[in-house]
């Protein structure tokens, strides 16, 4: 396997990880005030 | 204070020029967050204040008062009542319009009563002479217990004075304007006795806005001796509003003089024409036609330049890099994929240029008023026009903008139908398909046929939205009482700086938002198209060369035949072939099928995906054959020899993209806004099913 192929595999892995993170592991935003962890109390 | 950052909240009624003040204070140092629409976006910016102090400015959604009637207004209240919020301001800058001072001051007095240091900005000072208005600043400062900056955001005057006031915010008086106890002395005395350490007006807002803040829980108040019913609280709120207006009237009696004889009535004359029940619509559709004609005509030269530049870049890279997988990925995957985004920058920029001009001039508010008559017949509100027009940018903020519609039934219908509006992600798809199937010629000497088709598609989306609304209005069993209140701001010459910033911000959002997804998908699609299982893929050169028909091919033709065979037997080819039976009746081959499936990540991915698929294994060294449009136009059906993108397939695809629900993010936001999976599922099945049927009928009739 040459260096170009290694870089290609790394880029494919990074692209897949980016899309999986974007669509399946979205960051939860803080909810409205009134929740237990909203920081208002 | 030098070196530290001062937190400044910019607050005000809609249409007071708050965004212009924000732009003047921050320039290009802005970050745009997730609140919807121009006046309800959550923008944070920074500015350098006198003495080297840094200011962080939060542009809050436009609100008429602290009595929230929409979720956007809640954002303002939640922040101002919550000292633990990281954005809680050191100083509030309340922007008002000199022509609507009386109404705008209601919000100011409420903020003052929360004892937050507040500066009053009286904007649009440049219009005072024309409107015969004079203000007595020292008198107003002394009676409103504040400092005032008289500014003109149009001319950029008064901003330095405002910065001086901000930096000296510690000297601002924090006395309230209204004695909260005067609303209902008995009730407020009991409140004070129970919560002696709490600010009385804050308590009152906690009770009336049904939210919990500080150490006080609404539940603590319920069931006590001084509990009030909802209608009693409503009556007290009205009493509070009346008391505030009495106070404001008293102050303005001396503090502001309006000589009506000096005011001219150009606004009234324009309103009569622009909101006329016949001419109003004629003018509106005339403006729409002008916009779509211009989008196509003006964008042609820069789009061709970008298209050819990327083809050249791909060929240049291929010639100058070492042959190998990475070179193939860059020339066949990444460059065409990114080119598929960048090429649409001119059209996106022109679209937002026109939309921001319409908003800046005040015309958009007339459209809202004009369309209310039409909208209410379909179960929508006049305010639904804002999400429907914002939907031309993106359905996500547009759906969030529906929060401004007070009535739940109208809001739900608006949320469900907004994705029919043609969003900017559809524009690249429409644009490339129109250029492939509609001739670039003029009708009646002035109307470009491609521009007319684009306008027709936008109108189709809008018609789809209101017809679906009509059906939902008949079907949905939700009781409602509807009312419509909208403000028509003064006509203004648009500010170039505001328009420039809007165009820049929206174009950046398109390029960076969609660009990252497209880049990632381009890499994956190229990989899946360049790799495959089994011997059919790995032995493709030997298999194709051994075919009898290959004997007569030139070397270049043989290479293309091998590439096509490999692509068909690659991972993506196998997946595409798997879905082909479902999409074949619509006139699509497996390559278009792959592009449609990948469009669920973002619609504009369609063009990038096809560009990547058509580039895999092709001879990129020849830049003349390398533009996206040329490659799509040259694609033929290997069985029939006919062009893939003929009129029937193109029309079927255009209609599929016009009606199908293809955006995961939109479904997610619908779920969030309706707090139920039921509605996004109805949206997905209803819209996509309808799109399938329409595209099927279209292809079968036209083929």
From TrEMBL, chain B:
Binding positions for GTP per the UniProt entry: 12-19, 37-41, 59-62, 123-126
Membrane spanning residue stretches: 278-296, 334-358, 378-400, 412-438, 450-472, 509-529, 644-669, 681-702
Pfam families, per the entry: FeoB_C, FeoB_N, Gate
GO molecular function: ferrous iron transmembrane transporter activity; GTP binding; metal ion binding
Localization terms from the record: Cell inner membrane; Cell membrane
Residues given in the record as Mg(2+) binding sites: 23, 26-27
Record-annotated FeoB-type G domain positions: 5-172
Gene Ontology CC annotations of this record: plasma membrane
Keywords assigned: Cell membrane, GTP-binding, Ion transport, Iron, Iron transport, Magnesium, Membrane, Metal-binding, Nucleotide-binding, Transmembrane, Transmembrane helix, Transport
UniProt record similarity statement: Belongs to the TRAFAC class TrmE-Era-EngA-EngB-Septin-like GTPase superfamily. FeoB GTPase (TC 9.A.8) family.
NCBIfam families per the UniProt record, alphabetical: feoB
Record's function text: Probable transporter of a GTP-driven Fe(2+) uptake system.
Name of this protein: Ferrous iron transport protein B
């Amino acid at each position: 396997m040459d260096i170009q192929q290694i870089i290609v595999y790394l880029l494919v892995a990074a692209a897949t990880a980016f899309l999986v993170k974007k669509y399946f592991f979205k960051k939860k935003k803080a909810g409205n005030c009134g929740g237990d962890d909203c920081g208002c109390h | 204070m030098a070196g530290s950052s001062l937190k400044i909240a910019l607050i005000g009624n809609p249409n007071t020029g708050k965004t212009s003040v924000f732009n003047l204070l921050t320039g290009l140092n802005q970050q745009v967050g997730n609140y919807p629409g121009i006046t309800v976006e959550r923008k944070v910016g920074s500015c350098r204040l006198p003495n080297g102090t840094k200011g962080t400015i939060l542009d809050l959604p436009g609100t008429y008062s602290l009595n929230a009637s929409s979720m956007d207004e809640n954002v303002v209240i939640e922040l101002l009542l919550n000292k633990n919020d990281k954005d809680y301001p050191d100083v509030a800058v309340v922007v008002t319009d000199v022509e609507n001072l009386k109404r705008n001051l209601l919000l100011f007095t409420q903020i003052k009563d929360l004892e937050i240091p507040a500066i009053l900005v009286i904007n649009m000072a440049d219009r005072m002479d024309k409107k015969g208005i004079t203000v007595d600043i020292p008198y107003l400062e002394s009676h409103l217990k504040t400092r005032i900056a008289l500014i003109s955001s149009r001319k950029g005057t008064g901003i330095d004075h405002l910065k001086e006031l901000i930096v000296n915010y510690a000297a601002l008086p924090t006395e309230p304007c209204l004695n909260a106890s005067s609303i209902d002395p008995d009730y407020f005395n009991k409140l004070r006795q129970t919560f002696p350490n709490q600010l009385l007006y804050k308590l009152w807002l906690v009770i009336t806005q049904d939210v919990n803040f500080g150490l006080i829980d609404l539940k603590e108040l319920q069931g006590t001796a001084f509990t009030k019913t909802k209608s009693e609280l409503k009556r007290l709120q009205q009493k509070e509003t009346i008391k505030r207006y009495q106070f404001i009237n008293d102050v303005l009696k001396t503090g502001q003089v309006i000589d009506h004889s000096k005011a001219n009535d150009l606004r009234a004359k324009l309103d009569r024409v622009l909101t006329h029940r016949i001419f109003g619509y004629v003018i509106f559709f005339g403006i729409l036609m002008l916009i779509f004609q211009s989008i196509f005509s003006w964008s042609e030269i820069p789009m061709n330049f970008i298209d050819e530049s990327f083809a050249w870049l791909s060929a240049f890279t291929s010639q100058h890099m070492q042959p190998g997988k990475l070179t193939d990925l860059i020339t066949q995957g990444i460059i065409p994929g990114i080119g598929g985004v960048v090429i649409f920058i001119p059209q996106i920029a022109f679209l937002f240029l026109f939309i921001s001009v319409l908003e800046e001039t005040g015309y958009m508010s007339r459209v809202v008023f004009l369309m209310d008559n039409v909208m209410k017949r379909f179960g929508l509100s006049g305010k639904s026009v804002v999400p429907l027009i914002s939907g031309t940018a993106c359905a996500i903020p547009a759906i969030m903008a529906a929060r401004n519609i007070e009535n739940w039934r109208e809001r739900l219908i608006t949320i469900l139908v907004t994705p029919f509006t043609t969003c900017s992600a559809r524009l690249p798809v429409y644009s490339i398909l129109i250029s492939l199937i509609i001739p670039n010629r003029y009708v009646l000497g002035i109307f470009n046929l491609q521009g007319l088709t684009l306008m027709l598609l936008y109108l189709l989306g809008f018609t789809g939205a209101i017809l679906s609304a009509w059906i939902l209005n008949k079907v949905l069993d939700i009781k409602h009482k509807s009312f419509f209140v909208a403000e028509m701001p003064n006509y203004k010459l648009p500010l170039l700086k505001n328009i420039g910033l809007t165009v820049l911000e929206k174009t950046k959002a398109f390029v960076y938002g969609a660009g990252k997804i497209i880049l990632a998908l381009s890499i994956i699609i190229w990989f899946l198209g360049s790799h495959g299982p089994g011997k059919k893929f790995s032995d493709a050169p030997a298999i194709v060369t051994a075919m009898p028909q290959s004997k007569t091919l030139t070397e270049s033709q043989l290479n293309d035949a091998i590439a096509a065979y490999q692509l068909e037997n690659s991972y993506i080819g196998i997946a595409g072939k798997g879905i082909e039976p479902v999409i074949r009746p619509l006139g699509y081959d497996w390559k278009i099928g792959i592009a449609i499936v990948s469009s669920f990540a973002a619609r504009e991915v369609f063009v990038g995906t096809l560009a990547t698929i058509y580039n895999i294994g092709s001879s990129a060294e020849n830049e003349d054959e390398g533009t996206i449009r040329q490659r799509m136009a040259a694609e033929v059906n290997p069985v029939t020899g006919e062009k893939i993108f003929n009129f029937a397939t193109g029309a079927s695809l255009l209609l599929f993209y016009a009606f199908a629900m293809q955006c995961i993010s939109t479904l997610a936001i619908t779920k969030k806004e309706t707090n139920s999976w039921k509605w996004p599922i109805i949206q997905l099945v209803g819209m996509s099913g309808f799109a399938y049927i329409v595209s099927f009928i279209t292809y079968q009739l036209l083929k």
